[in-house]
Write a structure and sequence with these properties.
The chain has about 80 residues and is mainly alpha-helical. Helices cover about 50% and strands about 10% of the residues. It has helices at about 15-30, 50-65, 70-80; strands at about 30-35, 45. The chain has a two-stranded antiparallel ribbon with strand order 1-2. A hairpin with a 6-residue loop joins strand 1 (about 30-35) and strand 2 (about 45). Helix 1 (about 15-30) crosses helix 2 (about 50-65).
């Protein structure tokens, strides 16, 4: 007796989460991000100069590289400081 095959669609949302965390920082540095994850699209476009991009990447890196804080604590600090 054969078992029926069940198709599993696996969705990786880490890119969307990272983009949504980065977008407020991009705005802080005078640029923006276009994020489109609707209907299977996986599009993230940075709208700004290369120097602004470096500043945003550096700020995101700082959020996630603090020693002594758990990842959850760093996210709480991020939300308190950058999302209004």
């Amino acid at each position: 007796m054969l078992c029926p095959v069940v198709e599993i669609n696996r969705v990786d949302a880490s890119m969307e989460i990272a983009a949504r965390i980065t977008k407020p920082l991009a705005r802080k540095y005078g640029c923006d991000m276009k994020i489109d994850f609707s209907k299977g699209a996986r599009e993230v476009i940075f709208l700004g100069s290369p120097s602004q991009k470096e500043q945003v990447v550096s700020a995101v890196w700082d959020i996630f590289s603090h020693k002594g804080y758990s990842p959850f604590r760093r996210l709480l600090i991020f939300f308190r400081e950058f999302i209004k």
